[in-house]
Specification:
This protein is α/β, with parallel strands linked by helices and 208 residues long. It is 43% helix and 16% strand. It is built from 7 helices and 6 strands; from the N terminus they run E-H-E-H-E-H-H-H-E-H-H-E-E. Strands 3-2-4-1-5-6 form a 6-stranded mixed β-sheet. Helix 1 crosses helix 2, helix 5 packs across helix 6 and helix 6 crosses helix 7. The protein is globular and about 50 Å long.
Amino acid sequence: MILFVRHGQASVGAADYDVLSGTGELQSEMLGTEFRRRGVSATRILTGRLKRQQDTARCTRLASQWSTSVEVDEAWNEFDHEDVLASHRKVDTPDSEPLDQAIPRWSSGLHDHEYAEPFPAFTSRVDSALGKVAAELASGETAVVFTSAGVIGWIAASLLGGGERQWLALNRVAVNSGVTRVVVGSRGSTLVTFNEYSHLSSQLVTYR
């Protein structure tokens, strides 16, 4: 089984977005406490190189009391939203709503030459990362991957047989510290749950 965890709330509006806010730390700790309550044991813990991903892994690991070491793999990084926004600003007015328009422009496939990592390259990277972990996972083991909304959204959309349009919809609703469960078996990888966040009170449900 593979559990995909979206990072806790980042520091929106701060000088460095890529740092967990106080709410993000609390969300991560609450998730770890819930994992401990449920008896979830992590055989492997993986995270991308982004600070918000690694800090979520650290807080969750401490609260869950896992002894497994954390593996860092940049294949689990989120897409570069700054690059996506920069390309969008070259063709659109400054007062437009940035990400709401920039992300669909990037994922459309119509402007791939403008991006350091085009959408097809991003999805291929995520597909490869999922395949690698699934292939390395023995029966009865659980891998926990701390990553981001775009990555988790694509995994879910891909396993459901959807594409870019479904990814756009799932990417928008991923909750900070939400958990997506994928079961690996003889038939391959199967999506069981998406974006589960029962460990959070309603006041702690955030999307950024």
